[in-house]
TrEMBL record:
Gene3D superfamilies: 3.10.620.30. This is Transglutaminase-like cysteine proteinase BTLCP. InterPro entries: Papain-like_cys_pep_sf (IPR038765), Transglutaminase-like_Cys_pept (IPR010319). Coiled coil: none annotated. The lineage of its organism: Bacteria, Pseudomonadati, Pseudomonadota, Alphaproteobacteria, Sphingomonadales.
Amino acid sequence: MEREKFSKLAATLGCLIAFATGGSINAAAQQLPLIVALPSVIVLPSTPTLTDQAVCAVSSEARDGESQSVISKGAIIAGGVSKLEQMRLAQQGVAAGSAVTSLESTAPLVLASTASSGLGLTSCLQVSAKVDLPKSFVQPRMPGDNDILGSQRIRISKTTLDAKWDRVRNEGVSRRTAQRFINRGTSDKLDLIDQVNSRINREIRFVEDARSNDQWETASRTIRRKTGDCEDIAIAKMQVLSALGIAKDKMTLTIARDLVRGRDHSVLIVELEGKRYLLDNESDQLLDGRIANDYRPIFSYSGTEKWIHGYTAG
């Protein structure tokens, strides 16, 4: 009986990973034990291809408000009206076969849901019944030095936001344009990152993208317009820092769930001398990019690499 229960649990986790990545159930199940950040509500097809695997049915009992943070950014970012943009990113058209390809850590990972996220699933799943994902089987541990926002990255081959990322990832600005955001003669890299973060926050006015198909803008366009939403501002910081000499592979655009305000958000993580810094349009202060800061990361992008996020057990 215990063996049967374990087999069903393993198959269920495999199904959830396949839903998140657009990959095959078998490929995903082979990577167990792990979990990823998933939307709390998924949409199942009327006649799904998974009908022969009954264990893929997830409990329909509503489970809201389970979000937990390690360290609150509210102690740093106090009060004020939220600038966070509710992106409601509709995941559409992820090609099959994008299974998890590697793990950043060999430690077992455990399942966690993304409460009330606006992120959907792939368009290949037709609307039928809504099913809530279960709560985390194990509470996330305290973050380590290799973590991003309290989670560990799981490399995948495809995500539903690839087209948006590919449109901007190779773009840039001139060094002359980038130097507008730092003091003359600044050479210390941490000081440079700090100045770019705070000055872009002040000079680029946050506006919510009202278009139904949210567009990620290049830094040059965002700087020229002096407006942008959260991902536009994060991308602008990334491309300005690149022009100032920060290596692109040391910067990561992360799409996350803001657990305080209940919205999706985008931030930039910059690695410098073994430390990770969070650049957020909600704060002029550089924050520790290893800890959750009341965020639950969903997708991350850097160059040609892309990741989903999981939590190590124990």
